[in-house]
Amino acid sequence: MDIKIGIVTVSDRASQGVYEDLSGKAIMDTLDEYLKSDWESVYALIPDEQKLIEETLKKLSEEDGCCLIVTTGGTGPAPRDVTPEATENVCTKMLPGFGELMRQISLKYVPTAILSRQTAGIYNKTLIINLPGKPKSIKECLDAVFPAVPYCIDLIGGPYIECNEDVIKCFRPKS
Amino acid sequence: MDIKIGIVTVSDRASQGVYEDLSGKAIMDTLDEYLKSDWESVYALIPDEQKLIEETLKKLSEEDGCCLIVTTGGTGPAPRDVTPEATENVCTKMLPGFGELMRQISLKYVPTAILSRQTAGIYNKTLIINLPGKPKSIKECLDAVFPAVPYCIDLIGGPYIECNEDVIKCFRPKS
Amino acid sequence: MDIKIGIVTVSDRASQGVYEDLSGKAIMDTLDEYLKSDWESVYALIPDEQKLIEETLKKLSEEDGCCLIVTTGGTGPAPRDVTPEATENVCTKMLPGFGELMRQISLKYVPTAILSRQTAGIYNKTLIINLPGKPKSIKECLDAVFPAVPYCIDLIGGPYIECNEDVIKCFRPKS
User: What is the ipTM of this complex?
Assistant: First the structure.
């Protein structure tokens, strides 16, 4: 089974070309370091429009067959921040442990980590994870949650993902 | 007031007799160690069917008068895992602190703890708590959350539960 | 822009005059210590009636123009405890990180902290935060979450709040 991973940058300004999408690039680079298996990225750069985010998540799952979609941006308390709402609308199962752990990790660096509303959930055979917007926080959060990602994808019927164990220790419980 | 505790094992395979229900037994043994008060268990072993889980939770509360129902199994991200959804549908009040603490405790042992969606809530005069499926994790989680259980049952109008203080320290704040 | 902060004590007994509202007073005193900016409090003392709590939160936001509303009481598992439900009904965005952090802090003091269902969210340009009922716990929780409050209010279009940095270190990330 091919490993396809969706990387969705949600940002009004980056999607208008006001600045470069460094966050999407940070996710791409981090996953490249983590994954020993061959994988293919499907990239989208879109504005903070809830309906568009929902359509993008569905398309990446249904049409592109991504087993994992990682979003960046739109998780704060500002009026235009709607990525968690879009994620919750699309997913049929929520995984609150991802958001809890990512906020806990970010709290070690900034007290404003509690303002992040990032979450994760399952849609079809796709795991969707919201990451924060800043490249530095992206790496911190991925380092914390990624060890559980390959096993989660096993459980929802996705491809078998192998990691570079010297970079990140992925965990599969012996059943 | 009699102390009745519902123990619900949710598992397709155990309910088909493919393997023995060691999880239900682990809960029973742990509660036997904790409780100084006399108590009676009401046991159910059912498949991962959301509607059946909901009916079982309601029956144990309404007909059997359980002040506490503890479930095991069905809290992961797999398609058949629907225990948290059933619990949320039945409960009128959710208690997110239980899930948060149990995931935090389990994270000390396995990074896949964030995949667990277990929660807790109130239905009528019954506290319902989801536990993980594995006997070892069950004990770790119960040790963490049980100190708050007797006081919670006081607050919702249930029987007064006394613990073996040398085994588990239950806490009732002085008001 | 004027800084108006709503302080809402939710308590059947205090609202009937059975005892003095020490919790509202504790919030007032704590905010007085924190804030260097001039501010004005808008106070309400109401019973545990969900509809009344919702109306009070809306009025403080819409009519009084509070940028922050802090509630105390009604966050437990008892049948009359409905403050989180009222808050969730009013808010258009939830901020789960506040409840998670406050429970984590309170857990250092009492194992029954997991029974608290307190949360936070945004309604219009107002941040609403549920605090526990006891004066001691109020201070512990505010100390933990307040460093993120002024920046949150910036993000939702509220007034610029300055803190007494020797009392509480508020944090605004450099963007």
Answer: 0.96
